[in-house]
Amino acid sequence: MPELAFRRLVLGVTGGVAAYKAAELARLLVRSGVEVRVVLTEAATHFLGAATFQAITGQPVYTDLWDTRSPQGMAHIELTRGADAVLVAPASADFMAKLAQGRADDLLSTLCLARDCPLLLAPAMNRQMWEHPATRRNVAQLVADGAVLLGPAVGEQACGESGYGRLLEPQQIVDGLDAHFRPKLLKDRRVLITAGPTYEAIDAVRGITNRSSGKMGYAVARAALEAGAQVTLVSGPTCLEPPPAAQVIPVVSAQQMLEAVESQVDAADIFIAVAAVADYYVLNPSEMKIKKDAHILTLELAPNPDILANVASRPQPPFCVGFAAESENLEEYAELKRRRKHLPLIVANDALEAIGTDEVALLLLDDDGQHRLPRADKLTQARRLIEHIARLYHGLFQ
């Protein structure tokens, strides 16, 4: 991750079962080129030892406020000098309460107060602790004080319960840290994105769909979040894990996608229609499974609404971006679609090469002409696309 390479980071680890993930997190950070200095609370040492982190990071590990190994004997100040960030993962309810109150009674809490670099917190605790009013107040205060939250996730917990409070997976935390350092080209802009295929029922078990994996739409959602946007992702059926910070609205059919988009579009500054929406739906789907027989089955199809055209034709539409997946005459058909729907930007790709793959070449068409993005992985392309959208958007509205 180029945004993380050569960064200096203080990784704080507090007590809790989720502390075991911190070792893998440290490994991933080091692999990304980060210089990692680890600080353990006393409670954290009951779960993982200093020797583990020293072996992973190649750096001394600190646990004691009175540690004299630093040059001037003031580790709580010297550890954060020149650091790009302090990341506490996991951040327990107790530790966040301590920070919210400005208490400094151990090395980690003291250096968090004495730092002059960003503070990122990855909470981990029982769901009831996370939902408790005291924790909610503390979290709100920390955010107001400038701390950045990564998570928590929802899922099964060590106590046997399930809900919010689970620590993000190490790779998700690394992704969140990487996103923190990326330029905030769409800071506080509200971006609405559609992704994935739609599914149109034939009967109770069969339907019409397409081969879209949703990978491009999910990559665009992640890139928009990295750029500082507030992202709502309307997703058809996929097997993908959405970005943790996105608001996700799952849908199945094109009609459901249209309704979801219409419920959100008034608040959107930018609308990016990546989804591969089915062009037709079955007029009279059967509520029961249609029994197989020797006769030819005839389906009566009707056109689905054009979601992008509906949004673009509004009296005051958001900045609209369309996608055109074509199997022939790519430039011609994409530009015709852009002009027909009055779009400031359309993204064209070869449908035969792009569907279901991890890499793609893109052609961007706008009022200034063509902009080719050479073949690359979809996240890289999504980041390039968001940069292009930001330039056009700010050029039009600012």
Structure write-up:
The structure is a single chain. This protein is of the alpha/beta class and 398 residues long. The protein folds into two domains: 174 residues, Flavin prenyltransferase-like (Rossmann fold, 3-Layer(aba) Sandwich), CATH 3.40.50.1950; 208 residues, 3-Layer(aba) Sandwich (Rossmann fold), CATH 3.40.50. It contains 14 helices and 19 strands. The strands form five sheets. An eight-stranded mixed beta sheet has the order 12-11-8-13-16-17-18-19, sandwiched between helices. The chain starts with 7 loop residues before the first strand and ends with a helix. The mean pLDDT is 91.
Could you give a quick summary of the protein structure above?
The chain is α/β, with parallel strands linked by helices and 398 residues long. It contains 14 helices and 19 strands.
